[in-house]
Write a structure and sequence with these properties.
The chain is of the alpha/beta class and 333 residues long. The protein has 13 helices and eleven strands. The strands form two sheets. It has a six-stranded mixed beta sheet with strand order 8-7-9-6-5-10, with helices on both faces. A five-stranded parallel beta sheet has the order 3-2-1-4-11, with helices on both faces.
């Protein structure tokens, strides 16, 4: 069974409700129709019902009649939402009038639906920047207790079955943290190890990537990865984790054995933690475009409830995958 089919089956087993706040956007409407047809999640759309149904028909005859459509202008719990938002933002002195202006943004309205338990998770970003998605998530949902650093991962499914676990690897962080410091990088590593175990049904073997392997180069960037590896081991001594490792040392058995003998990760890593967002973002796109890998994500990890971002260049099938992963994530948070 392939990765996405497995995730959909898990999501279907305990169906969750996912809100798509970009509810007039063609790709979201198509993804909503597919999700409802396949039955692995329930869908909430935000806006005027007639406008949404009309947009879905004009976009391609997509059937979203099974979705729950919430119009903020007539929502029966709107006053409750305003009061809750004011309470959540009381340190900023937010007034009800200010709250109304903020909640006119469908991303804020959608996150509040998640906070209130009307939906179990949210997927957006097809027409919004990552910062626009993250801002309400961090203000309203916040991170899990004990976690300071939210981060993202992609599940990469490759034809090269000799890498990772039968061609499946997890890449982090590819879209969120620009230049993580050692503490942040360590948190990304251990959080992603847990995500791998949950999403991929296997034990994580985490490689802290660098342009150096075990001191082969000297540079402050190398020092950062070395320090992050030390912190991550202290945080979670139960996780198989090693660094600093070059990419080939991390995933090619013969090179791992040569450059990092005795490592329980080198040559067989299934989780690759990149030293910064440049490396992570370029890395996943290279594997996706040049190697033809399926890239599922990004999935934001570390939040108290699931809110996930999309690439603005995504296709409808990418959104379907993120909806399925968000629905499963809602089961395990």
């Amino acid at each position: 069974m392939d990765f996405l089919t497995s995730i959909k089956e898990k999501a279907r087993a305990s169906k969750k409700t996912i809100v798509l706040p970009e509810s007039l956007e063609k790709r979201n409407l198509e993804a909503a129709a597919v999700t409802l047809k396949e039955g692995f999640a329930d869908i909430v759309l935000i806006g005027n019902r007639e406008e949404i149904i009309k947009a879905a028909q004009e976009a391609g005859g997509f059937d979203v009649s099974g979705a729950t459509i919430i119009d903020p202008e007539s929502y029966e719990r709107y006053d409750e939402m305003i009061n809750l938002f004011c309470e959540l933002r009381k340190s900023k002195g937010v007034t009800p009038e200010q709250a109304k202006k903020v909640l006119a943004d469908p991303l804020y309205f959608g996150v509040m639906l998640v906070k209130m338990g009307v939906a179990d998770g949210m997927v957006s970003g097809a027409v919004h920047a990552t910062a626009d998605v993250m801002r309400p998530a961090l203000q309203i949902i916040k991170t899990k207790p004990g976690i300071k650093t939210a981060s993202t991962f992609f599940v990469m499914c490759c034809d090269k079955k000799e890498f990772g676990d039968d061609g499946v690897l997890m890449f982090a962080d590819c879209t969120l943290n620009q230049q993580p410091d050692p503490q942040q990088l360590a948190e990304i590593a251990v959080t992603t190890a847990d995500s791998y175990a949950a999403f991929c049904d296997g034990e994580a073997r985490v490689a802290m990537l660098s342009h150096s392997t075990k001191g082969s180069a000297s540079h402050p960037d190398v020092d950062k990865v070395v320090e992050a590896t030390k912190i991550a081991r202290e945080l979670r001594p139960d996780v198989k984790l090693d660094g600093e490792l070059q990419l080939d040392s991390a995933i090619v058995p013969s090179i791992g054995a040569q450059k990092a003998p005795g490592s329980d990760v080198a040559g067989k890593a299934n989780v690759l933690v990149f030293p910064d967002i440049d490396a992570g973002n370029i890395g996943y796109k290279l594997v996706q475009r040049f190697a033809g890998a399926e890239a599922y994500g990004p999935i934001i990890q570390g939040l108290a409830k699931p809110v996930n971002d999309l690439s603005r260049g995504c296709y409808a099938n990418d959104i379907v995958a993120v909806i399925a992963m968000t629905a499963f994530e809602a089961q395990i948070i």
